[in-house]
């Protein structure tokens, strides 16, 4: 066990239990238990305390810090939280998740530290989740659920939303995927199996051999011709509010919108307006702009029966989190062996 190169962990593996037990034998790992931690300030203090305890006892400082899934409520993982680590020689960070918009990777690069995400762990679960929300939106799943539980069966003229409408079959519909990364590609395969035609837009066209049957179109063409639009790109400064008033105005009337990426890629005010006007028929959202706060318009009884909401859980399956924990372990091992971790998203000068 490398006593001179200790690792700090926030929480512990919950799925790759035996594999992580082996890691605990290979390296000196101190664990910050999640019990009692509720927010960013609590984690920031726990990290600083762990570093201070090592320094005070004259022991070697942490070279790596890892956090598992289910810790996003502690974000941002930034300089404020982590500088006590980098100031004492920490050069590796890894957290559970494909997206890392809540991790200050530029700052980590400037500190000479790697950041490794778990890039493919949630591909299958999120692609399945996106398909689930496409079906939930095109069939009035949530309305049927609400009516049935309220004892209203298929509804009647006495309730504002009236009779439950007919669902729409996705066979023959055009699905516009914004962001044909690993999740978008996996969704393309699934949606084609249901008879959908797939078009996509990315910052730039990808190799035809990797398009999985999807056709590259301009953003304007995607907006104008899609029956269903699925958001699958990362949140960056250039994708924030990528879908706003102007973009909704270019869409087909009655379009279905699904977002399993990040809430802030859609301007929620504009989405609520588009739902109200009927431009957007129904939506399936796994993510919202200000999680966990929900825009009141989406909860308004005059709209909520056309809105399927999930609490950012479509990626969250036992298989996905198992894979993700294995990816964190792989990255730690590579770093500890002195290699560049395969899943590093940045390129620090080491
Ligand atoms: O949203 C989940 C993730 O980015 O892993």
UniProtKB/TrEMBL annotation:
Task: Using the record's annotation, list all stretches that form the D-isomer specific 2-hydroxyacid dehydrogenase NAD-binding domain.
Answer: 131-313
Task: List UniProt keywords, sorted A-Z.
Answer: NAD, Oxidoreductase
Gene3D superfamilies reported for this sequence? NAD(P)-binding Rossmann-like Domain (3.40.50.720)
Q: Which Pfam families match?
A: 2-Hacid_dh, 2-Hacid_dh_C
Mention any one GO cellular component term assigned to this protein in its UniProt record.
cytosol
The D-isomer specific 2-hydroxyacid dehydrogenase catalytic domain extends over 71-346
Give the molecular function GO annotations. Answer: glyoxylate reductase (NADPH) activity; hydroxypyruvate reductase [NAD(P)H] activity; NAD binding
Q: Where are the transmembrane segments?
A: none
Family listed: Belongs to the D-isomer specific 2-hydroxyacid dehydrogenase family.
The protein, known as: D-isomer specific 2-hydroxyacid dehydrogenase
Species, as recorded: Mycena alexandri
